[in-house]
Amino acid sequence: MELLIQQLVSGVATGGIYACMALSIVMIYQAIHHLNFAQGEMAMFSTFIAWQLLQWGLPYWIVIPLTVAISFSGGIAIERIVIGPLGEAAVLSHAVVFIGLYAVINSLASFIWDFTTRPFPSPFGAGSQFGNLISNQQIGMIAVTLLVLALLYAFFRYTRVGLAMRAAAENPTSARLAGIRVGLMAALGWGMAAAVGSIAGVLIAPIVFLEPNMMLSILLYGFAGAVLGGLSNPAGAVAGGFAVGVIENLAGTYVPVIGSELKLPIALLLIVIVLVFRPTGLFGRTIVQRV
Asked: Averaged over 268-277, what is the pLDDT?
């Protein structure tokens, strides 16, 4: 029973990271209706920035907000310089650009910091609580994830800018007629997605260690969570991220054939199964367009 509780708690903690990544993916998808394959690399680069600031002696309480601010600005810059000019280009054009972004960001991080695997200090300490049932890092991951999700919920539901971003994503044409600057809203969406991704990177780095390819598997889990919950439903994507974390943890522990080596294929299998039987996701909605 104790093992089951430990795996559930661990699954919720890692699922929170997947939920943040899934939410980042959905935010960009709703803004431009394309999947950003470079989302993980953007989070990785932000995590390296946080590590560098820590190496320069800055305390955590300055490093985290500064990293989030830099990531937010970087996300806006990418949208304004690279994505915005694409406009209504073909899906393949967007896919090629995203793959190019992935390669450029990964190579830039490798050039600046090389491929040396580095430990990343945890902001929550190395202890544990409740008789070693849950570590301080896991408690911190769950708490920060829930706080971020609550703040985003309040922002999109109760602020004018949040409502404008939702309107621009839902119906750009009507939003323009209402005086909303759709391009600016898309840029803000990219900035917020980059900021959320940076938080996910900083939270997961103490567990997976810091190196240029650290976010590849996290991105795939995030895709799985987004597809499972529904790309048209941010709350569903968050629920999907938590579900993926719990499922892959329990499967890796209690299914001998899977083990820790085959956890990642579980996420890919989830994507395939959901797309076959429910393409809109468990909480997504089917959009009907009049032709």
From this structure: 79
Cβ neighbors of 189 (< 8 A, separation 6 or more) are 27, 28, 30, 31, 79, 165, 169
What is each CA distance from 222 to 67, 118, 140, in whole angstroms? 21, 23, 20
Q: How many CB atoms lie within 10 A of CB 177?
A: 9
Residue 85 lies in a domain: yes
Instruction: Give the H or E element holding residue 103.
Output: helix 91-113
Q: What is the pLDDT of residue 259?
A: 59
Angle at 100 between CA 165 and CA 222, to 5 degrees: 55
Specify the number of domains making up the chain. 1
Q: What does the pLDDT look like over 72-93, one tens digit per residue?
A: 999 999 999 988 888 777 888 8
In a domain, 284, yes or no: no
- The reply to whether 75 falls in a domain is yes
What CATH number did the domain enclosing 235 receive? 1.10.3470
**Would you say the pTM of this structure is higher than 0.85?**
yes
E-strand stretches of 66-194 = 128-129, 134-135
Which long-range CB contacts under 8 A does 272-281 form with residues at least 24 apart? 274/227, 274/228, 275/227, 280/230, 280/231, 280/232, 281/226, 281/227, 281/228, 281/229, 281/230, 281/231, 281/232, 281/233, 281/236, 281/237, 281/240
Q: What's the pLDDT score for residue 256?
A: 66
Tell me if 287 is assigned to some domain: no
Enclosing domain of residue 23? 2-277
CA dist., res. 235 & res. 216, Å (int): 23
Q: What pLDDT does residue 291 have?
A: 47
Which residues does residue 118 pair with via DSSP β-bridges, in sequence order? 210
Judge residue 130's burial from the number of C-beta atoms within 10 Å of its C-beta, 0-12 exposed, 13-18 middle, 19 or more buried: exposed
